[in-house]
Amino acid sequence: MIIENTLAALQELATFKTILLMVVGASAGLIAGAIPGFTIAMAVVLTLPFTFGMEASQGIATMIGVYVGGLSGGLMSGILIGIPGTPSSVATTFDGFPMARRGEPGFALGLGVWSSFFGGIISTVMLIAVAPQLARVGLEFQPWDYFALIFFALTVTASLAGENMIKGLISGALGLIIATVGEDDINGVKRFAFGNDYLGEGFAFLPVLIGLFAFSQLMSDVRDRGAARKALSDMQEVDIRIEHMRAIKTIFADWVNVVRSSFIGVFTGVLPAAGSSISNILAYDQAKKASPNPEKFGTGHPGGIIAPESANNATAGGALITMMALGIPGDVITAVMLGALLIHDVVPSPAFISEQPKIAYAIFIAFFLANVLVLALQSGALRGFVLITKVRMYVLASIILVYCGIGVFSLNNIVNDMWTLAIFGIVGYVMRILKFPLAPMILGVVLGPIAERWLSRSLALSTDISEFFTHPWSLFFIIVSVFSIGFSWYQDDRGIKPWTVWYVPLFLLSVTVPLFLMGGYVRPTIAVILLGCSAFLFYRLPQSVQALKNPN
Amino acid sequence: MRALDRDTIVSILLLLFCGFLIWSGTLIRDPQFGELSPAAWPQGVSYVLTAFCLIYFFQNVMRARSSKASGPVDPESENPVGLKAWLIHFANPIACFALYFLFLITLPFFGTLIGGSLLVFALLSLLGGIAPRQLFVHALIAVISVGAMWTIFTFGLRVLLPRGEIMPGI
């Protein structure tokens, strides 16, 4: 079955056109990722209009190329000019730039390129191994469980929104409201239309997304006239040879770091809304803590490049696991991919891998291929990056602005979508100024209709609200949601306030209840282990409280 | 009386918006079919949003009180004050949005190719300067970039982009 599906997917992907599209996508991603101010999400969003006319697997393969390219591209500017191209390469700059400045840019780039590659490969293996298993678990889900799962995804989104959680929550709720405008999916009743045909049609997801993300980003980039007129860097000539062999040897010598960072990346990717911008810093921090020479981090230490670059590429695999196995986007980029699949009438859900094996396996293969392609394209992209850095920001912004308009029009051939783009461009820009995070809003727009559909299905089966608490998976997600809402407070107060010592044991104790309810052997066994851990932590509780009160 | 800070004003505006949402939620027709009425979800979300906005409002009020107690705010950290300063601060984005809306309004007349080229030219000149040499370069960039996009979408992706009255052929 696996071989059959793999061969069918290979047949789909192993065409000259698809490979060419992936090469173009990966190159575009590499260059876009390398340009400070251009996010990977923006690059993937801008690729979307080109994929409308393609087969689903071809379109997704192209976008995966851009995604993986973008993740790897960020390291170039981070290492060479000290400005991370994307938030996913912030930690790479800590050691990459000092290493480049002390005369080893080729080695730094080599470490980055190969760590990205190995991170991507480990994550591919995890994707292929974990996604079908997780999807199998997902097949047990009933409507109540689905609703609770999406509720959980929304709470995580908001709690990871940054310094101001309430702004993240408001942003997510606004996204849910935006998704309700127009005709209701279940009864066909118009909502918030006020007799206006434009509002009655509702807002198409992609113009909203491109407006919120790309349009508003461009406006932020050109706000300062001086900055807009400057070239991205004053780099003139670059004659850097990537030191492949030396880099590979160093990475093999530090393989524990690669594996640990890749696992951190995959795990972070699996969590809804926790993307590569978090994983690279987490991995860097862990690498530093585990290193025998932590003081050398920040001065051009190879481990400081290997960790973030392995982690950020591995995050992509984790985000794809959640998208493919559960049908919920792991981050904004997979939200765009989810939108692209929906355009092609493919609805990701736990049944996705079994019902659409060709597309699912095409995603697996495309992800692997993209990592290989990106590795091969890095040297060429380096030259492209140097050329692009000579272009002034306002030139790029002006051209991309028009491209955004043409791109969204091509979605449904409706001029109204261009208006939606502009309106949400303003909304996004205002939100940026007011420091409201945009990611929760995007996920609210994507997840809102799905949540409403599952809620409706649950209530159609039974109007008894207690069903949400008696179904084990639903209860599990509700418990996890409650703790995820409190997680940012826990993070802020950990080690400072006594209540935080209760957080972990209470969480472990709470999740054992649904695990016991699930029945079978494996899950109750896990529950017993968690119960043991919880009991141990409760036993140690007085000491932990005492330690907090008397730190010395 | 101390002026309200930006976040407090935003939270008040959001609360007004919530009130509007709750009111408009009552206008949604109920077909009396199915367990979940079409108004239930948007109304539920509106109430949740209102609760968040209230928390945001009280957070801002409390913060304003504590900052008042801790002394005057550093003027360097403040945003532009007054309409004129605000317009100057956000001149570029405002002009870009205005040009984009102008492009959309005139789209039926100019069409994508001409309208798009004019928009790129206008944006480039607005953001980059209007020296004669620059104008020439901007015109060249506008025609080449929009021409290439138009060609790719029209012939490569077979998208029938909006055509204008001025030249119905393109």
Largest interface between protein chains, with number of residues from each side: A-B, 59 and 60 residues
Shape of chain A: globular
Beta-strand portion of chain B reads: under 5%
User: How large is the count of helical segments of chain B?
Assistant: 5
- Low-pLDDT windows of residues of chain B: none
The mean pLDDT of chain B is 87
Amount of beta strand of chain A: under 5%
Number of strands of chain B: 0
What class, by secondary structure content of chain B? mainly alpha
From the N-terminal CA to the C-terminal CA of chain A, the straight-line distance is 61 Å
Strand tally of chain A is: 2
Overall tally of structural domains of chain A: 2
Query: Helix fraction of chain B?
Result: over 70%
From the spread of the alpha carbons, the general shape of chain B counts as flat
Uncertain parts of chain A: none
Give the termini separation of chain B.
60 Å
Number of helices of chain A: 26
SSE order and pairing:
The complex is a heterodimer of chains A (552) and B (170).
Chain A: H1 2-13, H2 16-34, H3 40-51, H4 56-80, H5 90-101, H6 105-138, H7 143-159, H8 165-180, E1 182-183, E2 190-191, H9 197-201, H10 205-221, H11 225-229, H12 244-253, H13 255-270, H14 276-290, H15 303-326, H16 332-343, H17 352-355, H18 357-388, H19 393-412, H20 416-433, H21 439-461, H22 467-470, H23 472-493, H24 500-517, H25 522-539, H26 541-549
Antiparallel strand pairs in A: 1-2
Helix pairs in contact in A: 1-18, 2-3, 2-4, 2-18, 3-4, 3-10, 3-16, 3-19, 4-5, 4-6, 4-15, 4-16, 4-18, 5-6, 5-15, 6-12, 6-13, 6-15, 6-18, 7-8, 7-21, 7-23, 8-21, 10-19, 10-20, 13-14, 13-15, 14-15, 19-20, 23-24, 24-25
Chain B: H1 6-25, H2 40-69, H3 83-89, H4 91-128, H5 132-156
